[in-house]
Design goal:
Two copies of one chain form a homodimer. Chain A is an alpha/beta fold and 388 residues long. The first copy, chain A, contains 15 helices and 16 strands. Chain A has an eight-stranded parallel sheet. A three-stranded antiparallel sheet of chain A has the order 1-2-3. A three-stranded antiparallel sheet of chain A has the order 7-8-9. In chain A, α7 runs parallel beside α8 and α14 packs antiparallel against α15. About 3% of the residues of chain A have low confidence. At the A-B interface, α13 and α14 of A face α13 and α14 of B.
C-alpha cells in the first residue's frame, strides 16, 4: 500500500480524530505539523537535525523552486527528496499562494528578509487559463496554469501535491470571492485531470476549499472537493482578519468536507490555533513561524505567556536554565538561556540554529501531546497545559 | 594525571613527531588542528556537529569574550566548557593578538563581516604595564595587563592558556622587534608568576616565541621559553610576508624550542602549511579559515588545485557528486554539489553549515592522515595526495 489514510479514533465531542497517513516515504501519525522547507531547505537545519527534533514531514514551495533552481534541474538531480536529502513524507504546494500574495503586493512571510521591504506587484494577469507573473528574483516572466503546476509538482516529486487555486485576497467582496472560488474549482478539475493523465502511483493530490469568509461559499467549495477524486482536502484562501474569524471559517467546513480524507489547514501554526482547529477536524498544519521566529530570538515554550519568550531580552543574560526545562531537544539538553542570549547578542548564527531546533522539537512535542490527548479524551486539559 | 604530553614517535628525517596531549577534558593525538570558536561558538556549528566531524579540540578568543559577555559572566555560568557545551579539550589565547592586530589598524579575520570594513585604530597606548585599547563594539576603554589576561583566562577556564605578548607587526624594524620581544618576555614572566600564584591544577600555560623574521631574535626567544616553566610553546608574532618566509621563520625555531613540550603554531592552517610546519616540529595549528571560507562557498578538497573548490561556481549547478567523493562527512554522505550550489545561490544558510561541516571534517581527516603518515614514515607521499 503506497498511500492510505486510516482514522483510528474519533473524538466523541468534536471533529478531532487520530489518523495514520501513509505515503511511499513513510507513515505519519495525525494530527501532525508540516515544516516549511521553502527553497528545498528548512532554514538553518540539516535533515539530520530535523529528524533529531523528531520531525515527520516537511514541505517545499513550488513557487520558489520554479524560479530557482527550476523543476527540470530538480528532476534531473533525482527529485526533491534526493536533492535535499529528506527521505520522509513530503508535501508541495501549487505555487498559487505566493503568486497571488506577492502579486497583490502583500509581503509573503517566506520572502521577508531578502532585503527589499517594499516590493512592486509582480502579478501581470489572471485569466481563466492561468496566472502571468514576474519573478521577484530577476523580473523574468512566467505563466502558471493548473496543468503547469501539476507538471512542476510531478517533476519535484513530493508525495503529496496540491491543485492550483487562486488565493483570494481578504479585501475583495463576496462577488469576487464567489467568481474566484468558481475559477479555482475549474482549475481544480483541470489539475485533477492532468494528475490522472500522468499518475504513476507516486503522488496524491489535495483539493482546496476556498470561499473566503462566506459560509454558503465554503459549503459549496467543501462539497465540490468532497465529490471529486481528490485524495485529501486542504482548507485555504482568506480565513478572515483575526483569529476568531479564522476559527469560524474553518468550523464552517467541518461538516461538509469529506469525513474520511486527510485534511490540511494551510499556513496556520500557533498552539491555540492547532488546539482549536484540531477540534474542527484538521489533521495537518504548516507554518513558517517556528523557524522564522527562532531567527529573531523567540522560543516557543509550552505554557508560556503568548506561547513564547524572547531570548534577546537582557533578563536571560545570566540565566543558567535551559530554554524550556521540560523540553528534551538538543538545545535544551545542552545549552542555557544565557548562552543563547550571548549568541544573539554577538550575532552568532548558532543562536538561530539552536532556537530553530528547539521550536521544531516543540511543535513536534505539541503534536505528540495533542494526539495522546485525543486518544485519552483530554484535549481540554492538554490545551490548558500548553496555552495559558 | 591531568596534564601530560607524551611523544610516541619521532620522524628520523625531520622534526615531525607523534604525541598524546592530555588535559582534564581528554587526550588528543598530535599533530592536530584546533578550531576557532571565536565568541564561544564555532561559527554555524553545534558542539554535536563538531564532534560528528571528529573534532578533538577548539579554542575561544579571550579578546572577544572579554568584551562580551565578559569573563565574570562566563565564570558565573560555570566556565567556558559548560557555557558553550563543549566537553573536550579547550584552548584560549591571551587577547593580545586581536588587541594589537586591530590596534595597528589591520583587520583581524575573525572580525571581518561585522559590517564596518574600515576601522579606526583602537589601541590607545602600549606600556610596560600593559595595553590600553577601546572596544570595537562600543568604544569602552579597557586596560589589559599580563596578570589581567591570566585572570580572565582563569575565569574562562580553558585547559590550555597563553601568556600575554605584544604581537609585533611586520612593518617595524629590527630594533622595535627586539624591544617588543624583550617586553613580551617580561610579560611572559609576569603571566607565569600570576598563573603559578593561583594554579589550581586545571590549566597549563604556553609561552610564546616572538622575534619577527630575525633568526638571532627567534633563537633568543625560543631559549627563553625553553628555560621557563611553561607547559608548552607557541610560535607567534610576525612570520614574514609570504609562505616561504613563514616556513623559514618557523624552521628557525625547530632546534631551539623545548624538544619535549607541545608546540602550537598560531594562526596557520592550509594543507601545505601544515605538512611543512609539521616537519618543523609543530604539533598543533589553528586558523579561522576552514569555517570562514565555507561561508563564502569554498570547500577544502584533498588533492584539488589550490586545495579548494568554490561551490558557487555555475559549473556545479547540475553536479550530482558529493563535494569530495573520498570524504565521509555528513555533507558528503547526504548532499550533492548541485544542492550546495543551490543553497548558496538562493541564500539558504544551510549551505554555509554543510560546507563548514565538510571543511572541519576535512581538516580532521588531514590531521589523521598526517599522523598515520608520520608513523609510517611516508609524509612525502601523504603530502602528494593532499597538495597538488
Amino acid at each position: 500500500m503506497t498511500f492510505a489514510f486510516d482514522i483510528t479514533h474519533r473524538d466523541p465531542n468534536s471533529y478531532a480524530r487520530l489518523g495514520r497517513l501513509t505515503t511511499p516515504h513513510g507513515t505519519i501519525e495525525t494530527p501532525n505539523f508540516i515544516f516549511c522547507g521553502t527553497k528545498a531547505s528548512v532554514k538553518g537545519l540539516s535533515p539530520q537535525q530535523m529528524r533529531d527534533a523528531r520531525s515527520d514531514i516537511i514541505l517545499s514551495n513550488t513557487y520558489h523552486l520554479m524560479l530557482s533552481p527550476g523543476p527540470d534541474l530538480i528532476a534531473e538531480m533525482g527529485g526533491l527528496h534526493k536533492f535535499m536529502g529528506w527521505d520522509g513524507p513530503m508535501f508541495t504546494d501549487s505555487g498559487g499562494f505566493q503568486i497571488f500574495s506577492l502579486g497583490y503586493g502583500s509581503v509573503a512571510d517566506e520572502i521577508k528578509g531578502r532585503g527589499q521591504r517594499h516590493r512592486k506587484k509582480t502579478i501581470l494577469q489572471i485569466s481563466e487559463e492561468g496566472a502571468a507573473f514576474q519573478s521577484y528574483l530577476d523580473g523574468k516572466k512566467f505563466f502558471l496554469t493548473p496543468e503547469g503546476s501539476i507538471d512542476i509538482q510531478r517533476k519535484l516529486g513530493a508525495d503529496l501535491i496540491v491543485q492550483l487555486d487562486e488565493c483570494t485576497p481578504f479585501h475583495v467582496d463576496r462577488e469576487y470571492t464567489a467568481k474566484s472560488m468558481e475559477m479555482s474549482m475549474r482549475w481544480g478539475d483541470r489539475s485533477l485531470a492532468e494528475w490522472k493523465r500522468k499518475d504513476d502511483g507516486k503522488q496524491r493530490m489535495y483539493g482546496i476549499v476556498q470561499g473566503g469568509v462566506y459560509e454558503d461559499l465554503r459549503r459549496i467549495s467543501c462539497e465540490w472537493t468532497r465529490d471529486r477524486d481528490f485524495f485529501a482536502t486542504a482548507v485555504g484562501g482568506s480565513l478572515g482578519s483575526h483569529k476568531e474569524q479564522m476559527y469560524e471559517v474553518v468550523a464552517m467546513c467541518s461538516a461538509h468536507i469529506h469525513p474520511d480524507r486527510p485534511v490540511h489547514l494551510l499556513g496556520i501554526g500557533s498552539f491555540i490555533d492547532i488546539f482549536t482547529n484540531v477540534r474542527a477536524g484538521m489533521d495537518t498544519f504548516d507554518c513558517v513561524s517556528p523557524t522564522r521566529i527562532a531567527r529573531h530570538g523567540w522560543a516557543l515554550v509550552k505554557g508560556a505567556p503568548k506561547e513564547r519568550m524572547n531570548l534577546r531580552n537582557a533578563q536571560y543574560m545570566k540565566d543558567q536554565d535551559p530554554v524550556d526545562s521540560s523540553c528534551e531537544c538538543y538545545c535544551c539538553r545542552h545549552h542555557s538561556r544565557g548562552y543563547i542570549h550571548h549568541l544573539f547578542r554577538t550575532g552568532e548564527s548558532l543562536g538561530m540554529t539552536l532556537l530553530s531546533i528547539h521550536n521544531v522539537a516543540t511543535m513536534n512535542r505539541l503534536m505528540r501531546e495533542v494526539r495522546a490527548a485525543i486518544g485519552a479524551n483530554r484535549l481540554d486539559e492538554a490545551q490548558k497545559e500548553w496555552v495559558v
